[in-house]
Fold each of these.
Amino acid sequence: MLLYDVFIALRVPQTLPTSFHNTMLTRANLDFARKKIVADYRCLGDASQRVAYDGFLRHCERSLQNKAETPLFPVILNLLKESNHGILNVEEAFDTWTHLFQIGFQDQVDMMAVAPMGRSFVDNPPIFAAFIRCLLGKGVTPVQIGTTYLLQDFFRYHLGALGSPENPIRQLCQLFQACSDTQAIHAFLKTLRCEEDGFASYALDGSIHEGLVISPHHVEPLCFSPNESNLESLYALFGMDFLVGVLTQWEQHQNEAMWVDFHVRLFNDDSTIDTYLSDVLLMVKDCDRMLRCLANLLNERTLARLMQKRIGSVCNLIPYCPGILEHIKAADLMSYLQDIRAQASSALVCVANLVALFDGLRKSNDTAASALVFDALLDAIFSDPSALDDESMLRKLRQCPEVNGFVTQKIRRLEATLELIIRAPTHASLEEKYPGVEDAWTDAIRKIQYLQRIIPVKTTSPTTIYQLYKALARSLLEQNEAPLQISTFVAALGLRPRFDQGVLMYEQLLIELLSTFDDDHLRAQCIAELDTHAPRPWRTFAYADAPLFVRATLEGNIGLLGWLHAQRIKNPISYDKLVLEAARVNQWSSVLYFYKKHACKSTTVKQLLDMAVGFGASKMIETLLSDDATLLDQHTIDKEFQRVVRKNDLKSTECFIRSPRKPCDAVIAKMFKDALESHNMGIASLIAERCIGPCLDAAIVQSLMTAARLNHRDELHFLLTSNASCLDSKACDSALVQATRANQRESVTFLLSFSSIHGVQEALREARKKSRTAIAANLLATLQTRLMPSPVSTEPLLSEHNPQGLASPNSRKRVATDRLFNQRLINETRLEERPIKRVASCGSYIAQSAVVPCGFFYRPSTGLSRPLNELKRDYSC
């Protein structure tokens, strides 16, 4: 058919042949239509029809693109779905679509098996009416159509327009009423009740009746007749819904060659990729079976095209196509994330795509990339109000192993940004900048509160409007440009300076500023304003359930506390309770203020020590241990000392060690070992240097033995270089033997520098016993080095008797003796031989020789000679 004939036939659909769905749109047809367009214009006559014909030809041109030909049927369907371009009115569209559905369904056997797909047309009344009419023409009864709930869904979709004069529900009924073969379905609509809450009295035609019935609900599974022509027609009619339907019934036809080949071609076609595949991936993202099927259908070229186009929904295939993740990680991840956000059709789609990418990266254990995606995902959630209330999203985020670190970092970044914004205004610019500051604070707090729903993380940012006011006031006070003027500050915030019987924001703000800031000028302004205008006894009144005395205590405002004492304002609660409340909020200046003025109970002192240790308040710990040591039992001191050591709190540990009531020796020894094992060397060194006692000495020596035996190099180095008096040569010798017995070569090498010759000898015997050859060689070399003096020299010997090295007769005699001894030794032994035992007479002493390396000589007359009872040892290996 010529394109002009097709255009005309759209108004008279009966002229379209049943084989129309097999007709091809060719480049030649389009060029011919362009050539005879002037003649066609004369035939059309009406100017609006000429414009419609131009739009029709342009649509055909776009559909062809660079191809020589393409099926005409889907081109016409897409044209009529997108817009009629002025071609058809409502009644003509109803008739034309009826005929197009009849052509498209001529090869489909079971119409009820495709009826659920009619939901894709609920937004277009003429097409939906034509679909229902086609079902009726194919033998489907009104009752069967009612069980599909298509009519219910159409009514529910357009329920919001029910009261408008031209609502779609009335339009549908008018189309049914005007056609003889749809009268039955129109009558059937009047009997069905709307099942939406609040509309039970409405029939599906929009009228109100009594005695309406509810249609039974029956969902027929999708089933497409496995005919290539039928599949092409269904794809042209339903597009994306058809592709999803294919995936739902794939297992039924996966062994049919025609079915598989057709859909492999279809899913990897460029037009399918560009038009539908992204949305298909989003629709099936929660179904593993369909995702696996889709991953098997798509080839490498299609996946590469999707990633090149930055289609975010391709991330849903990561579990089944690992190459996708490698491609994303190889590319610039930040750029990829920006493209995903930019190309997403909505914030909801963006969130879904980022969730899929995040799941894939999380399973690959790529923490750095996961952090970037997690951050981008949170930003996408923040931009979608509906996602903020999605509990399933919160559960998914909590499942991330690194969620604590990710959320904490995000909150800290939000806090830092908000801090910069709060500090930006000056005294002069506050009124101008405050609206922007409040907007930024509102946005940041909304995000922080969502993050705290994921995991509870404390924030330093102001969480109430009064905290924001105080943060701004603190920033202005720290700038030191000028004293803070209450009247100017309040005016910049947009507050009216007035009082009433109820506490207004202005009065509450004065109380907040007075109780928070220890500033004389600001305090004087607030007191003067409250004294003049406050309609209540503000000094003792409980603002927000907290009197001023308690507020000042919890804020650590010592200046205001002094003023209240001068005014003889009584504390509304007991002082013990007050100091404990201050301690709980880490206000130790207030605790010290009251602690020095009022005696506390023993139980209060114990609780204060416990909280001071928890907060690391070393000054308070020192005060408690020095002033009220008698109120603290030894068990409490020991328990809290163990806590500070395990917290690695050096200052607090020093407070315990320097206090009059030290922890007991056994606890000190135990915590020394704990600190050493935890590599808290600062605390271990402090305990070793400041504490004395047999328990600690035993613990230090035992730690040395354990470190030598297990080759804990850091602990060995710490112990041997510490100033512990208990680590003498005997302890080092024992450690050397332990390391030799455990075959710890590194420990042996390190300990040799601290061991005596006797310890080396004992270790050498142990090495022989345990067959530690390498360690024995090391020990033997150390012995040789220590026992061998320097090489023989012909230079005169230097000594205290001969400081100038003069060749005296005695010195010449000693040199001759040495040369004689060494010559005999060289003649009797070789370097490769085992060490031998040789005794040379030298006065009342005996010198024992060993294998001497080449070039080194033993000097019996001036060397290492010892008494006889010390030389009864065998140096051989």
Amino acid sequence: MFKRLVFLCLALLIPAAGWAWTPEELASYEARAEQMRQQWGDPALAIAIVHGNRVIWSRGFGTLSEDDTTPITPQTLFPAGSISKSFTAAAALQLVHEGQLGLEVPICNWLTDLELSSSDVTQRATLFDLLANRTGFYPHEGDLAVAFGYGADTLYGRLSHLPLRHTFRSRFSYSNWNYFLAGRLIQEASGMPYEQFVKERILQPLGLKQATFKMSAHQLPMGHFWHVDAHEVRLQSMPPVDIRAIAAAGGLFASVEELGRWVALHLQQGRLNGQQILDPWVVDTMQQPLIEMPQDSLSWWYPTTLRGQSVHYGFGWSIQQHLGRKLVGHLGLAPGYMVTVSFMPDENVGIVIMSSSYASLLPIALQLDFYQHWLKPCSCLYVDWSTRLRQQQTASLAEQSRLEREMEEERIGVEPPVPLKGCIGTYTHPFYGTVELRAHPTDRNQLRLLGGPNRLPGRLIPWEGADMRLFWDTLPLPNVFVTQVTDVNERLIGLQVGPFFLQKAN
């Protein structure tokens, strides 16, 4: 009786269905979004609200950059980041539906030259394992090789040197390499390049005329990330990073209106404008909660107020409950940018938010603010998401800066076994390729690092004994320790970076 009473109370607090906003409510949300953007400091923002089979409202905020004051519009292209994974999952499942791929058939039947670090996983891994992120790749490990500038074929041939750190099928472990392989699988099964297949089977039928996998074909808003050191926290601009090598995992560029149409397609069971673009089975299968996402897999930007709730991964989407409703979506992180795509199938509504600030919590705050105003629950359930998440983000950045100060204060200053001059040279790793260390042009107390064909720049600073620290100039990556490795004669033979050993070539 008590449980029935609680359920009845919740039903009264949260309406059974949302309804379309009035023009006044849309204007209020627009004003609130711009006010939040100004408070948070995100330079560029674009939002699209989807209801039923169409985008009912979309706006751009800010400009392309400080120097280029071209206004952001709903047609401005942004990197979609990992939203690309939902396109890959849909394309792969469409091939399964058509009988050209098998969901639980070993992928080595198509990728006959595939070699992973485990021969067992190589022989047993299926498309299901890839799309559900349960092969064992460690989150984001190996992604740096993409920024180094290696191509898709090179990276594919090196996967045997990227370790699988989790037991096969033991848990969810998010990795771009799962979807990278799914893209290769689509290519083999369809007989055409991955990008061409997605364009012909999804982008063109859906009317996404701007969406592309070619970064050089358009002008993007300037990307930004939070630079954090022991002395300051500031928003820093950064040049775009070409990640087309992992197009199936994160290489799509699209406008907020185009991603709004993608949401509408999923709300309409794969049918839009009188055309069945995706089979309903594909749409339904993607939204099934197939594997639980452990709490330790939720990154720092996941709202602390939502932690503890059950979150599952489907195929290209995450699935959870919010305000008593099923919420489907995904975050898209690309260097310099943050995207959220989400929708509530039972409410026939969704929202897309794109920002030019890497890992900003503003898109999440805007998303949560939207749903509570759309659903209009009891006022006792309203949360000031902007204030709450801005406090969370500020506290997280301040803590990172505090830890940097603490590390600097604890340095004793023990000289490295090999002087910096002796570290100059070329280093190689079978997956990450070539890294070059040079004398710094202006500071003799540090070295210049150049990674891969792109000559990705960084600085190597002596820290404590054999340990040095690597600081990237243009990427929002954590500063890592690099340890000198010497032989019995104290000659430098390589560098240890986490679990990876880079051998000195000269």
